[in-house]
Design goal:
Elements: H1 4-14, H2 44-56, H3 63-68, H4 71-76, H5 82-91, H6 98-109, H7 118-130, H8 134-148, H9 153-161, H10 169-182, H11 186-198, H12 205-218, H13 221-234, H14 240-252, H15 256-269, H16 276-283, H17 289-301, H18 305-317, H19 324-336, H20 340-352, H21 359-372, H22 375-387, H23 394-408, H24 426-445
Helix pairs in contact: 1-12, 2-5, 5-7, 7-8, 8-10, 10-11, 10-12, 11-12, 12-13, 14-15, 14-17, 17-18, 17-19, 19-20, 19-21, 20-21, 21-22, 21-23, 22-23, 23-24
Keywords: Repeat
Protein name: (thale cress) hypothetical protein
PPR repeats: 239-273, 288-322, 323-357, 358-392
Length: 446
């Protein structure tokens, strides 16, 4: 019932889940490294390779054929090792266009007998990210993960450790988490997050956001809550919508104690219960009406009416008005506890707040009065309903009939209980009630 796509929109505003060029523009303090001319100390093979690429490269779609049929490329190939390719990426002694280096990388990786290590793929992916080729960088990481498969996070992540602190290494961690998540390897994605904390990388905000979104759809609520607490402790930004969804899920599952923990965690991390609105404003976060309503609903179902009313007051102090459903739930909870007086107090508040109670709300109060045996008050409430134009339904009349039957003739002597069903109108109801009272009076006079 709770639309995860709303959650996705909320997360994407602060933690985009995909890597567009616009979202990864380079900061002004950093520009891609390059060397304008080859140094005398450069490896001769690397220099020859760079010259061959420079002289043979053609723009797509001819880049592969340009390398395939270039004599200078063919001449240098037997001397090449993975080390030379990594040096080409990292040093680029002739300042070759980044597209030409990537084209050669793809070309050489397709050659028989030439195999790159995981580290080499990450070096190339980082190079592409530095030059804002994020889609291409992501595709390389997807290639690595698809080849390594499940339960590979530890062996793959270790290749990133030596790159910690270099430009765009954070992108690689995010991209790796997203790739594992999108392939359905959730334990691997979680392991990547934990390894990033162990090796003191920055918090992978986008990777965590993407993983959290996926877990919301697939995993048990308790597992989601545990992971959310873990990433919050690491520095993942608070997101009130996630709290609301988790509270709602716990309440629907009947797990009110955990829903209360979620609510308490918000106040613990950011808010003070007694000055909730002020603290919300200062922290730039607020618990919305959905979250409060879910918490109140769960507490009412569990019979914790005092806690539910306290949450209702916090909600109102935070500047949010309860809706008809929330008021009615509260009235029903108090009436079931035998406290119809508080139920009517809430009815008055509801009306003062501009709400027009429906027949459902009145039925809740009528049921509470009937259970207490306050049949005169129940009939007065029925008259009040009719006077203000609220049309009773079958539940209204049947509730009243049950109440009159229960309290007007409790003796076993009266065995002709009226048929309980839909009562056509008020006249029929009053006729049946009068018969009940006459039967009760006759029984007492015997």
């Amino acid at each position: 019932m709770f639309r995860i796509e709303i959650l996705r929109c909320t997360l994407s505003r602060s933690h985009p889940q995909r890597f567009s060029r616009a979202s990864f523009l380079l900061s002004t303090w950093y520009s891609p490294e390059s060397i304008s001319a080859a140094d005398n100390d450069d490896d001769p093979v690397l220099v020859k390779l760079s010259v061959a690429i420079r002289d043979s490269y053609k723009d797509p779609p001819l880049e592969f054929s340009s390398f395939t049929y270039c004599p200078s490329i063919r001449k240098v190939l037997p001397s090449l090792s993975v080390h030379h390719v990594v040096d080409l990426i990292n040093h680029n002694p002739l300042s070759l266009p980044h597209c030409s280096i990537f084209a050669f990388f793809k070309f050489i990786s397709s050659q028989p007998g030439f195999r790159f290590t995981v580290e080499t793929y990450f070096v190339m992916a980082r190079f592409l990210a530095v030059h804002e080729m994020f889609t291409e960088a992501q595709s390389l990481i997807e290639l690595v993960v698809s080849r390594k498969g499940k339960n590979s996070a530890s062996s793959v992540f270790i290749s990133l450790v030596e790159m910690r602190g270099t430009p765009m290494c954070g992108f690689l961690v995010d991209a790796l988490m997203i790739t594992y998540t999108d392939l359905g390897f959730i334990p691997d994605a979680i392991q990547c997050f934990r390894l990033s904390r162990k090796h003191r990388f920055d918090v992978p905000i986008r990777g965590c956001g993407n993983l959290l979104d996926r877990m919301m759809k697939l995993n048990p609520t308790g597992t989601i809550w545990g992971f959310y607490m873990e990433i919050l402790d690491a520095g993942f930004p608070l997101n009130v919508y996630v709290f609301n969804i988790l509270m709602n899920k716990f309440c629907k599952e009947g797990n009110i104690s955990d829903a209360q923990k979620v609510f308490d965690e918000i106040t613990k991390r950011s808010l003070q219960p007694t000055v909730i609105r002020k603290e919300m404003d200062q922290n730039g976060i607020e618990l919305d009406r959905v979250g409060f309503s879910a918490l109140i609903c769960g507490m009412c179902k569990e019979g914790r009416v005092i806690d539910a009313e306290r949450a209702l007051r916090e909600m109102m102090r935070a500047g949010m008005k309860p809706d008809d459903v929330t008021y009615t739930m509260m009235m029903d909870a108090f009436c079931k506890k035998g406290d119809a007086q508080t139920g009517f107090k809430l009815l008055k508040e509801m009306q003062s707040d501009g709400h027009v109670p429906s027949v459902v709300t009145y039925n809740v109060l009528l049921n509470g009065l009937c259970k207490l045996g306050q049949m005169k008050n129940a009939d007065m409430l029925l008259d009040a309903m009719l006077n203000i134009g609220v049309v009773p339904d079958d539940i209204t009349y049947n509730t009243l009939l049950e109440g009159h039957h229960r309290h007007a003739n409790a003796s076993k002597h009266y065995k002709q209980k009226p048929e309980i069903g839909i009562v056509a109108d008020l006249a029929s109801y009053k006729s049946i009630v009068n018969e009940l009272y006459r039967a009760s009076k006759d029984h007492r006079n015997r």
